[in-house]
Amino acid sequence: MRKTFLVNDRIYLRAVEPEDMDIMYEMENDPSLWDISNFTVPYSRYVLRQYIEGSQCDIFADKQLRLMILRKSDHCVLGTIDITDFVPLHSRGEVGIAIHKDYRQQGYATDALKLLCEYAFDFLSLSQLYSHVATDNEVCIKLFTFCGFVQCGLLKNWLQVEGTYKDAIIFQCLNPTKQ
């Protein structure tokens, strides 16, 4: 029997749709999430619309994949999870995850990260996923560790947040079938 990807008993992951514009606009412009990104200006609705319309939803064409995280019971958008900086030659990509402030600390990030890893390894056949996490972000450190990522490095003064530099941990998860 063929395995179903991107769904479990609580959530499912799906491609970005035009109706996601409002939640994406809210989350992308939330200053509390800016320290985990490399962007320095707020996103306009115009730019987000262009992103949605221009995406082929193909990690090999776009070199990234953004998926929306939805609760199965009511189809409420909980957040986003991404594979960015995808390098086909090395079969790796960076994971980013953002849960809307109203739905944090309820296990949705864990569910989403596990689903993304299964999809990346079992369907896309990626060799590895990695993430950069600020050393003071205890919630994310626990999340990645719980989901099988291991700390493999420390980047000094990697993130600048409000004029102060923070160190970042590099977390890595290798595809168990490719080791």
UniProtKB/TrEMBL annotation:
SUPFAM superfamilies: Acyl-CoA N-acyltransferases (Nat). Residues 11-176 form the N-acetyltransferase domain. InterPro entries: Acyl_CoA_acyltransferase (IPR016181), GNAT_dom (IPR000182). It comes from Bacteroides faecalis. The lineage of its organism: Bacteria, Pseudomonadati, Bacteroidota, Bacteroidia, Bacteroidales. The keyword Transferase applies. CDD domains: NAT_SF (cd04301). Keywords: Transferase. This is N-acetyltransferase. It comes from the Bacteria. The keyword Transferase applies. GO terms for molecular function: acyltransferase activity, transferring groups other than amino-acyl groups.
